[in-house]
Amino acid sequence: MKISDLKKGQKVTIRCKHKTLLVDMEARVAGVRSEVVLLELIRHDGQIVDFSSPHVHIITIYEDGEDMPKAWTNCRIQRRTVDGRQFHALAAPKASVKVNRRKVSRIIIDKQGKLKISNVPNGVDITIHDLSVNGIGFQCPRKIEEQDVRHLYIQFLDEDREDEEEIKVEARVVWKKELPEGAFFYGCRIVNAGENLGYYIAEKMRGDRDTGF
Questions:
Q1: Residue 110, CA distances (Å) to 7, 128, 136, 160, 166 in order
Q2: Are 140 and 129 in contact (CB under 8 A)?
Q3: Would you tell me which of 20, 59, 82, 212 could form a disulfide with 15, CB atoms 3.0–4.6 Å apart?
Q4: Phi and psi (nearest 5°) for 158?
Q5: Residue-wise burial string across 126-161, b where 16 or more C-beta atoms lie within 10 A, e elsewhere
Q6: What is the bridge-based pairing of β-strands 165-178 and 120-131?
Q7: How far apart are the C-alpha atoms of 81 and 137, rounded to whole Å?
């Protein structure tokens, strides 16, 4: 996928890296002119962002919810005036690559959980396949329509604790895949979670090392 394949109205994440500093900013596509993507002016902390520094590494990430996210590296962004309006003009030297945004350790748990979405009062039973501090993958018997929900609310029990402590996370779908049996697999980014999620993952990883897995 070329960056010029992006369509007006689609959203992308502009990731800026400088030494140890990393900032993600959301941007909306305003149009495409001659292989250059015009973005609505990007603001951070209320100020229009200046991307002119040669020391800033820019990555553009696009998530369509249908597949793994796509990323363009070594991007360049400049201010440009088109038809009397100002935009941030985005260019990328290469086609996109599929990326897995969960670069941290994950655990395979294959346990039952409950998915709560706005149009299903009692929630949906799901099977959570894998989990990390910033992502979760699960199988669900139904298709989740984007217009039905902004965020997903997922909960499951830590059965190793005496009181079977409940763990809750809030997530957003990054990609989905339909399975042969009619169910769906969802890869999600965790946007909010209780403190006990980190403890749960750490204990599970420690247990895997102790048992040799």
A1: 37, 5, 11, 15, 16
A2: no
A3: 59
A4: -90, 95
A5: bbbbebbbbbbbbbbeeebeeeebebbbbebebeee
A6: unpaired
A7: 42
- β-strands 184-193, 107-117: how paired? unpaired
Q: Report the 3 state secondary structure along the chain.
A: CCHHHCCCCCEEEEEEEECCEEEEEEEEEEEEECCEEEECCCEECCEECCCCCCCCEEEEEECCCCCCCEEECCCEEEEEEECCEEEEEEECCCCCEECCCCCCCCEEEEEEEEEEECCEEEEEEEEEEEECCCEEEEEECCCCCHHHCCCEEEEEEECCCCCCEEEEEEEEEEEEEECCCCCEEEEEEEEEECCHHHHHHHHHHHHHHHHCC
Query: What is the number of other CB atoms lying within 10 angstroms of the CB of residue 60?
Result: 24
Does residue 103 carry a pLDDT above 70?
Answer: no
Percent of the chain with pLDDT strictly greater than 70: 87
The confidence score (pLDDT) of residue 88 equals 97
Backbone angles phi and psi of 89, in degrees to 5: -95, 125
d(CA 61, CA 39): 14
Pick from 12, 54, 135: which is nearest to 1 by CA? Answer: 12
Q: Kindly report, residue by residue over 104-127, the tens digit of the pLDDT.
A: 567 888 889 999 887 777 889 999
Q: How many CB atoms lie within 10 A of CB 171?
A: 22
